[in-house]
């Protein structure tokens, strides 16, 4: 029985998209990943300059502890592009603000309380020291580096996320193993000409016949979106 080339290519593309879904794509913080901000934390055990790490369902977020219940962290936020009202932008960033911020690449390095930073999740302290096996700078220098970078910043999922921020402060080099893993996966996808062809064909069919139904248009939009997010 002869295989349908279009169905075969579409199936291959969907397999590649599923491969992406198994990685932690967004190294940013979104409320709702933990059990709630009311959870108490033993902040007396944190030292100024420590790297705090919180795990979510689909991502990991990092920050630098500054002391006095303050954490500096890089946070995408679309509201920063819409208003200068600090009373509004200093509130905890919701998903409605965060996701458009990631797409539009607007963010800031801001200071929040430990509770707002962690949002109920367990906190790992200096876990990156073990993961990356790198020698850290002195804690005071780490904290000072973080404080010097506070304010608006250009965001890039692969080149300038919260992991890049903390590794620069902690080790003097911008590193993001999560972003590197995602980048390698995307390269596998875009190298496959059959995936690109399937994307174009499915996109055209979805426009003509389905009015861009989300379950059909997603494969067509995924590759251009990934290329956009990969840019610096």
From TrEMBL:
<dbReference type="InterPro" id="IPR042288">
    <property type="entry name" value="LRAT"/>
</dbReference>
<protein>
    <recommendedName>
        <fullName>Lecithin retinol acyltransferase</fullName>
        <ecNumber>2.3.1.135</ecNumber>
    </recommendedName>
</protein>
<keyword id="KW-1133">Transmembrane helix</keyword>
<keyword id="KW-0963">Cytoplasm</keyword>
<dbReference type="GO" id="GO:0005771">
    <property type="term" value="C:multivesicular body"/>
</dbReference>
<keyword id="KW-0808">Transferase</keyword>
<feature type="domain" description="LRAT">
    <location>
        <begin position="51"/>
        <end position="178"/>
    </location>
</feature>
<keyword id="KW-0472">Membrane</keyword>
<dbReference type="GO" id="GO:0047173">
    <property type="term" value="F:phosphatidylcholine-retinol O-acyltransferase activity"/>
</dbReference>
<dbReference type="GO" id="GO:0042572">
    <property type="term" value="P:retinol metabolic process"/>
</dbReference>
<comment type="similarity">
    <text>Belongs to the H-rev107 family.</text>
</comment>
<keyword id="KW-0012">Acyltransferase</keyword>
<dbReference type="InterPro" id="IPR007053">
    <property type="entry name" value="LRAT_dom"/>
</dbReference>
<dbReference type="GO" id="GO:0006776">
    <property type="term" value="P:vitamin A metabolic process"/>
</dbReference>
<comment type="function">
    <text>Transfers the acyl group from the sn-1 position of phosphatidylcholine to all-trans retinol, producing all-trans retinyl esters. Retinyl esters are storage forms of vitamin A. LRAT plays a critical role in vision. It provides the all-trans retinyl ester substrates for the isomerohydrolase which processes the esters into 11-cis-retinol in the retinal pigment epithelium; due to a membrane-associated alcohol dehydrogenase, 11 cis-retinol is oxidized and converted into 11-cis-retinaldehyde which is the chromophore for rhodopsin and the cone photopigments.</text>
</comment>
<feature type="active site" description="Acyl-thioester intermediate">
    <location>
        <position position="162"/>
    </location>
</feature>
<keyword id="KW-0256">Endoplasmic reticulum</keyword>
<keyword id="KW-0967">Endosome</keyword>
<keyword id="KW-0732">Signal</keyword>
<keyword id="KW-0844">Vision</keyword>
<dbReference type="Pfam" id="PF04970">
    <property type="entry name" value="LRAT"/>
</dbReference>
<keyword id="KW-0812">Transmembrane</keyword>
<feature type="signal peptide">
    <location>
        <begin position="1"/>
        <end position="29"/>
    </location>
</feature>
<comment type="pathway">
    <text>Cofactor metabolism; retinol metabolism.</text>
</comment>
<dbReference type="GO" id="GO:0005791">
    <property type="term" value="C:rough endoplasmic reticulum"/>
</dbReference>
<keyword id="KW-0716">Sensory transduction</keyword>
<feature type="transmembrane region" description="Helical">
    <location>
        <begin position="197"/>
        <end position="230"/>
    </location>
</feature>
<dbReference type="GO" id="GO:0005789">
    <property type="term" value="C:endoplasmic reticulum membrane"/>
</dbReference>
<dbReference type="GO" id="GO:0007601">
    <property type="term" value="P:visual perception"/>
</dbReference>
<keyword id="KW-0443">Lipid metabolism</keyword>
<dbReference type="GO" id="GO:0048471">
    <property type="term" value="C:perinuclear region of cytoplasm"/>
</dbReference>
């Amino acid at each position: 029985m002869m295989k349908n080339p279009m169905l075969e290519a579409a199936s291959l593309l969907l397999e590649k998209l599923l491969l992406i879904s198994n990685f932690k794509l967004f190294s940013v913080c979104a409320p709702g990943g933990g059990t709630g901000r009311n959870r108490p934390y033993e902040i007396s055990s944190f030292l100024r300059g420590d790297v705090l790490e919180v795990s979510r369902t689909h991502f990991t977020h990092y920050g630098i502890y500054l002391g006095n219940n303050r954490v500096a962290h890089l946070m995408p936020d679309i509201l920063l592009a819409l208003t200068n009202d600090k009373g509004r932008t200093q509130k905890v960033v919701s998903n409605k603000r965060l996701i458009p911020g990631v797409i539009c690449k607007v963010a800031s390095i801001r200071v929040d309380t430990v509770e707002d930073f962690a949002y109920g999740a367990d906190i790992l302290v200096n876990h990156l020291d073990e993961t990356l096996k790198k020698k850290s700078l002195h804690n005071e220098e780490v904290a000072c580096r973080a404080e010097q970078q506070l304010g608006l910043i250009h965001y890039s999922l692969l080149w300038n996320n919260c992991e890049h921020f903390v590794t620069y402060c902690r080790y003097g080099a911008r590193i993001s193993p999560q972003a590197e893993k995602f980048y390698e996966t995307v390269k596998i996808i875009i190298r496959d000409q059959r995936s690109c062809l399937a994307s174009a064909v499915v996109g055209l069919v979805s426009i003509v016949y389905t009015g861009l139904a989300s379950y059909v248009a997603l494969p067509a939009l995924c590759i251009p979106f990934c290329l956009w997010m990969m840019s610096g």
